[in-house]
Amino acid sequence: MDVRLPWTTASICLALLLGGCSPGDEKHVASLDEKTATFEQSLDAISDPKLKDAVTELGGSLLLLERARLKLDDITPHTEYGEDALAVLKHYPAPQALVDTFINGLFVLHKDASSDYLTDLQPVFPLNLDIPGGFLFPHGIEWRSVTLSNKRVIAYQPEWSETDPGIQLSPSSSNVTNPDDLTVTYPFIDGLNVDKKTLPQPVSLQGQIEVIAPRRLYSFDLTQKDVGQTRTNDNLSVKLLKLAKNYAEVEVSNSLPLAAEVADSRINPLIVQARDATGQYLVRAGSINESPEQVAFYQKQLAQLQKQKSWSDTLEKQLSDDQQAFEKEHPRRYNKVYFHGPIETLEISVLDFSSATVTRKDLDLPIRTFNPRTTAKVVQPLDLPVVVYDDQARNWLKGASLTEEQLKAGVRIHQSVEEPSAARIEFSHRRTFNDEMLGDEFNPGVSPVTFFTEKRGGKLDEPIELPPEAYQVDPLRATITYDLNLFPETPEIAVGSMPLFLATVARQSYDAQSLPKGLKINDNTLVVDRNMFPANEWRFFVKDDSGHYLKQILSVSHDASTEGPALFAVHYFYGRPTQVESYQRTDLATVQYGFEVKLDKAPTDDVAP
């Protein structure tokens, strides 16, 4: 949750904020709710639509900012570890090398859609765009056209048109989370069956990509002793205003102006990370990007707007001039960043955009087809001219040695009582590599559960006698469903055990020159004989000469027939493997997780007496 007012950026994160705050701040929430209601009523008195929009945007954003602050201040204390957001940059000698990797590793996959009249195109990026804050550098892609197998070129259009009778190239409506996915839509003719194979197929995608690299990145490591101090490196300076248990307040400035290439861009040059006493990176819980002085300034602007009767060019200019004057007087960039866990060391990294390098490249990308399963006997090449490392692999593979205690400690219990006839207790845990190695042969054993009315003096009352249909245990989904209408008394506590599953995993490491039979490295691929290494028991990871794990592009299972057994699997990587690690499940144990759960109350009006 990163919150920034609309006058300084284009968006504000609503999804998390609208959920309100936790009960710990009820008094403040009630006050905020009253303030919100009063503000909404005040809007009714504004007749000028442009003025009303401005007041709504600024006032609504201030209220959301306050709600976000309450939510972040009331975070439940717990420690959660994440990844180094800058790990990808540390693999390359300079920012420009990262840019070149980002551009040269891009390719396009052909994906069959659910309809005979649609074909989806998925641009695949070599670097993860889903990291906190997204890709580190400003970038953009402009798609222009697709070339079909009959040499016809279809121009890109930003929206699919219902009235266009021809073939169209437009953004995909099936994947709203990835704006770069595209769809080729063929004309639909009612009553006519179409064989998709007879339609001209997309063979290449055209466009242009632009990425802006900063002059440099510089990191400051700060601790409690740096509070109140300003640290400087050339044109960059950082001041640590406050370092609390789980949040930090910092100010960052660049004494040089932004390069002309990014002067009009909305860039966030600041990456704030934290580590605890173990040296591991903590997951960010969110941030507030407006200083108390900025909030006071926006509140003053809001009060000024609320006194106006109408919008005017003079008012707009005054607001803009005031904004520029404030920014000139307060050149430092403020951040209050919250983390899941106690902060020991703060790592503040600044992208220095006082000068920048703009890389633009026209794209003419072949469209490739890689089905997850194929009966082809020949391995299709997919060798891209870049090296990309999998920075999550090392932590992910720690799950290969997961202990029973660690497995139990990670269990979280959730309850749902909105439907009294189908109340639920759900047991979940964060997915680890151990889950990937479980296979599909489970022996859950017995999963007993008993319901009690209450607990007195540390002792449970007599159990509630229930008919068999009153509750159901699903051990494989780790859920208990119970019907409160069939309970003679209201249950207060559930006691029992739920099975968890723990794989014993054996690890082996091989050099490329000494691979066992059934494994083969060809260029950037690892070929695995599935008869010798069944997919439900084995996993493979590879490294290159640097000792880092290579990122997998995709994998394909080559089968004997459409319904026959797998012959071999091909794993494609960004880079050349020189070492292979194998992970085999050698045993699967059932671990009983004993529980005593205080049950949530169901709506009493919906429960039969």
UniProtKB/TrEMBL annotation:
PROSITE patterns: PROKAR_LIPOPROTEIN. This is Lipoprotein.
